[in-house]
Amino acid sequence: MSTASFEVRFETLRGHMLSFLAERAEAEPEQAKAITKVSRRIVEARLPEVRQEPLRLPGHRHLEAALAMAQDGPMAEFAQAFAAVEPDLRWIRTEHYREKLGDDYMANYCYTNILGYDGLIPDDRMIATFFIIGPGRHYPSHHHEAEEVYFPFGGDTLWGQDGEPPRSRPAGLAVHNTPWLLHEMITGETPLFTFCLWVSPGPIKLAQLAD
């Protein structure tokens, strides 16, 4: 792990987030409005004087493989900047999923909000997060009122939207979920590892699984 202070490591990550998002906003105009909103919030964000205690969940064990996978893709330096900050972050999961998805699924996924609820920088309307699901898992159809943009670091995950057959997506390019659009992910031999943005019209409401 880097011996640099957390503040220095975070500023490096902030720089990578902003440069990546600026590039994507220019390249993908359909998502530019949401990307720009989150980018502006990241620019103005200040670290809290007292940070949360770091927390790792069982699904965190997939991070090593996820980071190794990312080194073969276009977001390698971004992933490295995240890895330098990660030991100080708090990993969480959506606990109400346990009733429908079971303990095994819950032990194989987690996410850490840089910006957002229960995150490093609190926000009740926007999220910038790093998200992991272990290999051989199905995150079934779900939806939410927030607009969402995923940027996968790589891997063989299949992404499904609106009942269409799930398909692979290139690393670094957006997977855009408009409000209330049903979507799902199916992981293969590699973990899902993605940077993700949410923009909500009001206070964030967590995703709900489809009936």
Output the CATH class name.
Mainly Beta
Which fold name is given in CATH as the topology?
Jelly Rolls
General form: globular
Number of continuous helical runs = 5
Distance between the termini: 43 Å
Helicity level: 25-40%
Major sheet characteristics:
5 strands, antiparallel
Task: Provide the CATH superfamily.
Answer: Jelly Rolls
What report would you give on this structure?
Strand 5 (158-161) and strand 6 form a beta hairpin. This protein has five helices and ten strands; from the N terminus they run H-H-H-H-H-E-E-E-E-E-E-E-E-E-E. The radius of gyration is 16 Å and the shape is globular. The chain has one domain: Jelly Rolls. The protein has helices at residues 6-27, 32-44, 63-70, 76-85, 98-106, and strands spanning 109-115, 126-133, 138-143, 147-152, 158-161, 167-168, 175-177, 183-186, 192-199, 208-209. The longest helix has 22 residues, at 6-27. Helix 1 (6-27) runs antiparallel to helix 2 (32-44) and helix 1 (6-27) packs antiparallel against helix 4. The strands form two sheets. A five-stranded antiparallel beta sheet has the order 1-2-9-4-7. The chain has a five-stranded antiparallel beta sheet with strand order 6-5-8-3-10, with no helix packed on it. 29% of the residues lie in helices and 24% in strands. The protein is α+β, with helices and mostly antiparallel strands. The mean pLDDT is 97.
